[in-house]
Design brief:
Largest sheet: 6 strands, antiparallel
Distance between the termini: 15 Å
Shape: elongated
Number of strands: 20
Strand content: 15-25%
Helix content: under 10%
């Protein structure tokens, strides 16, 4: 049984408690959503998961006494050309109480937008005729993510946007010179809520499509877990977004052979939720993949890697 302090009073109505359970507490938060999936066969990269945080100096979130559901968004699936689902899927939403971060947008279709590819950060688009996908959808302030890149040639996709208020938009497709290049994912946003600076929500890099033998350069994933795009010659896979960072998935490469060869889009990375409590807080988290650890400055960190439950039982004396 956890010991619940009663500083300031000898009854269950004293400081840190209220009748029927612990009083609510305001804590700093980091809420990162899942990254969007990359498109199959030389498409755009997935957008980074939306990122919202109160640290440092923002409005904290209220955690009630007793049980609280914490939601962690999964990464979106990568596109699969062979199964005729080349676009993949957006990342999942992460949330704690009223704070929600939207999943990264999936990489878009060809030749025009086939949505939904907007999201916490926008997914990249493949070819001329499509317009860049918006980030920060739904809108919050500060912004939870940046737009995806837009095309300026037809040699590959553009990169997904980065997550967070300081995230960068994905870059447009590179020039048709030699080597031909695809767009990079946007960089994510860093925070040191844990005591160490970590970057979250990088956008996925785009894959490249080119004739056999021509030099080519796939898009790189953005900092914060964005996956790389795939090369065309020789054809290679992209890489997945990093779990726990909400990175967007990279697109696979493709070439026109013979025979025509493609690689599938890669999944986005899962998100994460971190809550920072005073050191005297009594906390329990479940399931076991979620943790309570000590912050180097003396606070407690409740870290959620998957959806689970937080039980807050007040403060000890």
């Amino acid at each position: 049984m956890p010991i619940i302090g009663a500083i300031g009073g000898g009854s269950a109505g004293g400081y840190g408690q209220r009748k029927g359970g612990a009083a609510p507490i305001l804590v700093d938060y980091l809420v990162v959503a899942g990254g969007g999936g990359g498109r199959g066969a030389a498409g755009g990269g997935g957008g980074g998961g939306g990122m919202r945080t109160s640290f440092p100096g923002g409005t904290k979130v209220e955690i009630k006494g007793g049980n609280n559901t914490i939601t962690v968004g999964a990464g979106g699936a990568g596109g699969n050309q062979a199964l005729l689902t080349p676009l993949g899927s957006p990342g999942g939403t992460s949330s704690v109480q009223s704070i929600e971060s939207a999943g990264g947008g999936r990489a878009d279709g060809n030749p025009a937008n086939v949505g939904p590819s907007e999201g916490g950060a926008g997914g990249g688009v493949p070819d001329p005729g499509a317009t860049p996908n918006s980030g920060n959808v739904p809108p919050v302030s500060p912004p939870q993510g940046a737009p995806g890149g837009g095309p300026n040639s037809n040699n590959g996709g553009s990169g997904g946007g980065g997550g967070g208020a300081s995230g960068n938009a994905g870059t447009n497709i590179g020039s048709p010179g030699s080597p031909r290049s695809a767009g990079n994912g946007g960089n994510g946003t860093s925070t040191d809520i844990t005591g160490s600076s970590v970057t979250y929500g990088g956008g996925g890099g785009a894959g490249i499509y080119i004739n056999p033998g021509n030099p080519n350069l796939a898009g790189s994933g953005g900092s914060g877990g964005g996956g790389n795009g795939g090369q065309a010659w020789p054809v290679t896979d992209g890489t997945a977004g990093t779990n726990g960072l909400g990175g967007g998935g990279g697109s696979g490469g493709a070439n026109n052979g013979p025979p025509w060869t493609w690689r599938e889009g890669q999944p986005g990375g899962s998100g994460r939720v971190i809550l920072r409590f005073p050191s005297i807080s009594t906390l329990e988290v479940s399931p076991g993949t979620n943790t309570v650890t000590a912050h180097p400055g003396g606070d407690k960190l409740a870290t959620f890697n998957v959806t689970g439950n937080l039980k807050y039982s007040g403060e000890t004396s």
